[in-house]
Amino acid sequence: MMKIRFERMFYVAMVSLFVLSLTATALGQGKGGGGGRSSGGGASNAGGPPAGVGVGRGLGNASDRSNGRSDDGLRNASDRSNGRSDAGLDRARLAADNRHQAEKELREHPGIANTLHVNANALRSGYQAALAVNPNLKFGQYVAATRLEQNLHARFPNITRNAILAGLASGDSLGRTLHNLGLSSHQANEAKKQAEREIKDARR
After folding, report:
1. Contacts of residue 145, Cβ cutoff 8 Å, sequence gap at least 6
2. What is the pLDDT of residues 26-55, one digit of tens each?
3. Which residues are CB-neighbours of 148 under 8 A, at least 6 positions away?
4. What is the per-residue pLDDT across 53-105, written as a single tens digit (0 to 9) for each?
5. How far apart are CA 103 and CA 127, in angstroms?
6. Residues 174, 152: Cα–Cα separation, whole Å
7. Is 3 helix (H, G, I), strand (E, B) or coil?
8. pLDDT at 25
9. Tens digits of per-residue pLDDT, 177-194?
């Protein structure tokens, strides 16, 4: 009888200890969570986004999330092409600027096309084709090359618009290009002056 009573008392004691242990654990967790909420920056965000996540993080950490690959990709496009990608963009921008300037010239001075005995669309398309080869080419240079061919080609077969444009693309001046194509310095100077007078008249 004593044995049975002892076993019951032992059982009740063990259950009590177990319940007390659970209660202490729950109280400890409750205090930790409450501390986080009261501090405004703990583990609990009261229904907000997870800690460390927000607009600032999303905007600023593209490089971090990719271990720098996003930045490297932008920087290395130029490196892998030895600068050709940057040079290509610069050429495209320069050609676009010159093309826009040519459009303005044609609008403000429609007599230019008439002086060259071509319509504006033909002059425009010819200049755009020349820009693809030499984006530095100014519209005035293209007009001058066209007029010089018209004035000189019959006497000097080497002098064509394409030949003049090739000389300009190589870095030579207009006078030097005409000299290389067979004109003396005096002839080149006079031919330039005549073309300039005619183009100036067309701009009025």
Report:
1. 161, 164, 165, 168, 174
2. 445 554 444 444 444 444 444 444 444 443
3. 159, 161, 164, 178, 191, 192, 195
4. 443 444 445 455 556 554 555 455 455 656 566 777 888 898 899 999 999 99
5. 10
6. 14
7. helix
8. 52
9. 999 999 999 999 999 999
To the nearest whole number, what is the mean pLDDT of the chain?
Answer: 75
The count of residues in the chain is 204
151 vs 183: CA distance, rounded Å = 13
Handedness of CA 122, 125, 131, 136 (dihedral sign): positive
The two tokens of residue 1 are 């009888």
Tokens of 96: 């676009």
Question: How far apart are the C-alpha atoms of 187 and 168, rounded to whole Å?
Answer: 18
Helices (H) and strands (E) in the chain, counts: 11, 0
Give the whole-angstrom CA distance, residue 55 versus residue 144.
57
